[in-house]
Design a protein that fits this description.
The protein is α/β, with parallel strands linked by helices and 287 residues long. The chain is built from 7 helices and 15 strands. The strands form 3 sheets. The chain has a 6-stranded mixed beta sheet, with helices on one face. The model has no long low-confidence stretch (mean pLDDT 97).
Amino acid sequence: MQAQVRPFFHAQSNTYTYLVSDPATGAAAVIDPCLDFDARSGRTGVSSVTAVLDHLRSEGLQLRWILETHAHADHLSAGRWLKTQQPQAQLAIGQGIREVQHTFKPVFNLGDGFATDGSQFDRLFADAEHFAIGELDAEVLATPGHTNDSVSYLIGDALFVGDTLFMPDGGSARCDFPGGSAARLYQSIQRLYALPDDTRVFVCHDYGPNGREFRCQTSIGEQKAANIHVRTGIAQAEFVRIREARDATLDMPTLILPSIQVNIRAGDLPEPEANGVRYLKLPLDQF
């Protein structure tokens, strides 16, 4: 059975959020919801994720899962806000989030009150674990390399790869964050390439290389034939050389510091201080 997939583009961060549903039962999942955030003013907003919620309601769908592919470094997750609107949904991520929490807890000096066991989420998925979205079978594939906690979700014939792969003309994700590894990313991609060529592939980001229109859907066959970093015939050593050379030219993502400290909390914003205001931290001279 094919999953129905409705993409929503978050232009502020070039991120695709997906509403995935089972046509037989109306059960649904939202993958990688985005919170609006203006770094200049510190203002947050929910217009983008509200559009997803409105569509879900208008179609009469029942949200069962809020799925994160990893703790993103380029946008704040709206997972926690979405759960406040749909409390029956489970908020989930891969088990590797524990490593990411352990890495960044001292960076942000989060203190003894911040748990690094993933308990901020309702469910931590193990590699190869299966779960259901109505009558659709969903499988979790651990795909580390970009980050330690990266997972892909295979739902029916639709694969949601997070930042593991971009569109073929965009290549692959960077691997220079803490816990990243170009060799591990190559191995993760080869695991995905073992899937049938006609598997639909949905990417988390697109930047419209060379001015083309933004796109979010490709296939395993297209990736193997045309991905500029890791098509068929490119060996691991060559990919690592290409990926590490590319990473050496990249600036830090604009929103990495606000994003990570929110996303390792499952999208929860920090508690208000005595004056009723919430504050994010900016560690100086750490990166």
